[in-house]
């Protein structure tokens, strides 16, 4: 027998929340661009005008459209692409992928336009940013306006959160151009929603079980010929945002270092406003913290100083591209944390270099690594050539572009 009570949550507009009892509607909360309603057993029970805060968001979106310089972009660029993402942080695998994808499109003659609620990345602000709050009633109107005006060859939704997609008229956008989704992480999104897109690509293997006709396109790195060499280094580096959700992963990194008498440095912006993060950071020596870095630039200049680099997602890929031993960390237990080797490369590409959701059999080789280091035998952990061959921006983006083109050849310009 199914659940007696179920709660269905969708976007910010329309039927936002519906409570069902034995598949019969009990309560429904509905929001339009002008008001809010509550229905009890299908009958209107309560109503009010839309709260002022939503109208203020409308005003902010109006001002952003006027200030974004879209007219200039359209005049200067014959070809554009539009990326839509809920928000952009200053550091992360999602942001790194989007940046490289935008750079690639620029290099082949397309002007990238990024639509997001906010952008904290200096790199991604190099491109045309249009800041739109997706909780505003006029979000979908302005998104449609941007697509009509810019006439992009495709619109690609990158999402870490997906709730706002329920409010987007994807069918309307598809009348104008190709519309796709790039999925980061593990999400439980309705297949009915995902089927509306012309194509779906994902970076983590688990998603293929959730979305029909999805294509695995791994994250990528800037190719480099620079290679790390073993010089009896005795310091390790951890790279990540220092946020509450990362503390267990960071703690496991520190445990592995301390158990093996390895000094360590930690690089990444710190969420000082979070109490748990502040307490964690207060325990560390000040000279351990490097602050925010550009991973590629920092490793190109200082990678040889470290015995290995630890992290998840994009960090191990970039470290491995220089030939630096890469430790893929688990947030559950340090026993699952695994140094990348050639025999595990295809497996971790499939799982986007994230351990928590993948099968655990064969993981956890830290003891082997430090035993090999003691003997000076570390070449099997240096995979610069292999990673550059498989995961360079050029090779991965060619695969990505083929998927876009083949999704609707009639719309490709």
Identify the CATH homologous superfamily of the largest domain: Glycogen Phosphorylase B
Number of domains: 3
Low-confidence stretches: none
> Into which percentage range does the β-strand content fall?
15-25%
- What helical percentage do the residues reach? 25-40%
Q: Just give the CATH class of the largest domain.
A: Alpha Beta
Distance between the termini: 51 Å
Mean of residue pLDDT values? 90
| Main sheet makeup | 7 strands, parallel
The name of the CATH topology of the largest domain is Rossmann fold
Radius of gyration: 23 Å
What quaternary form is this? single chain
Q: Per CATH, which architecture of the largest domain?
A: 3-Layer(aba) Sandwich
Strand order of the largest sheet: 8-7-6-9-10-11-12
Q: What structural category arises from helix and sheet content?
A: alpha/beta
Q: Determine the number of helices (DSSP H or I, runs of at least 4 residues).
A: 14
Total beta strand runs:
18
Shape: globular
Q: Explain this structure to me?
A:
By secondary structure, the chain is an alpha/beta fold. The chain has 3 domains: about 5-50, no CATH class; about 55-220 and about 400-410, Rossmann fold (3-Layer(aba) Sandwich); about 235-390, Glycogen Phosphorylase B (Rossmann fold, 3-Layer(aba) Sandwich). The protein has 14 helices and 18 strands. The protein has helices at about 50-65, 70-75, 95-105, 140-150, 170-175, 190-195, 245-260, 275-280, 295-300, 315-320, 340-350, 365-375, 385-390, 395-405, and strands at about 5-10, 15-20, 25-30, 35-40, 45-50, 80-85, 110-115, 130, 155-160, 180-185, 200, 215, 235-240, 265, 290, 310, 325-330, 340. It has a 7-stranded parallel sheet, sandwiched between helices. Strands 15-14-13-16-17-18 form a 6-stranded mixed sheet, sandwiched between helices. Strand 9 (about 155-160), helix 5 and strand 10 (about 180-185) form a beta-alpha-beta unit. About 35% of the residues are buried. The model has no long low-confidence stretch (mean pLDDT about 90).
């Amino acid at each position: 027998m199914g659940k007696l009570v179920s709660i269905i949550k969708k976007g910010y507009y329309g039927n936002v929340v519906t409570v069902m009892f034995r598949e019969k509607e009990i309560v429904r909360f509905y929001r339009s661009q002008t008001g809010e309603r509550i229905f009890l057993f299908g009958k209107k029970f309560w109503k009010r005008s839309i709260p002022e805060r939503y109208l203020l968001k409308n005003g902010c979106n109006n001002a952003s459209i006027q200030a974004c310089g879209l007219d200039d972009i359209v005049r200067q660029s014959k070809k554009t692409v539009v990326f839509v993402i809920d928000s952009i942080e200053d550091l992360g695998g999602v942001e790194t992928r989007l940046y490289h994808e935008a750079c690639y499109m620029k290099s082949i003659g397309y002007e990238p336009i990024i639509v997001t609620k906010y952008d904290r990345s200096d790199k991604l602000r190099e491109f045309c940013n249009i800041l739109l709050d997706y909780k505003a009633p006029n979000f979908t109107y302005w998104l449609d306006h941007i697509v009509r005006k810019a006439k992009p060859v495709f619109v690609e939704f990158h999402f870490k959160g997906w709730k706002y997609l329920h409010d987007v008229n994807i069918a309307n956008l598809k009348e104008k151009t190709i519309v796709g989704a790039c999925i980061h992480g593990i999400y439980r999104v309705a297949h009915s929603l995902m089927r509306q897109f012309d194509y779906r690509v994902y970076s983590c293997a688990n998603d293929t079980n959730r979305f029909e006709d999805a294509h695995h396109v791994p994250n990528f790195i800037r190719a480099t010929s620079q290679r790390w060499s073993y010089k009896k280094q005795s310091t390790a580096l951890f790279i990540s945002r220092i946020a509450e959700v990362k503390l267990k992963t960071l703690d496991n990194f520190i445990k592995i270092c301390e158990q093996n008498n390895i000094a360590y440095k930690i690089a990444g912006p710190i969420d000082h406003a979070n109490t748990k993060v502040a307490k964690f950071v207060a325990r560390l020596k000040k000279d351990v913290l490097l602050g925010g870095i550009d991973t590629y630039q920092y490793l190109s200049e200082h990678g040889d100083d470290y015995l290995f680099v630890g992290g998840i997602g994009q960090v191990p890929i970039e470290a491995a591209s220089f030939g630096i031993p890469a430790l893929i960390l688990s947030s559950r237990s340090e026993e699952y944390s695994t140094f990348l080797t050639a025999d595990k490369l295809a497996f971790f590409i499939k799982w986007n270099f994230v351990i928590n959701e993948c099968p655990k059999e064969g993981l956890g080789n830290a003891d082997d690594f430090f035993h090999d280091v003691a003997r000076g035998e570390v070449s099997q952990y240096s995979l610069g050539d292999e990673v550059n061959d498989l995961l360079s921006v050029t090779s991965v983006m060619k695969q990505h572009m083929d998927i876009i083109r083949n999704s609707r050849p009639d719309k490709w310009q």
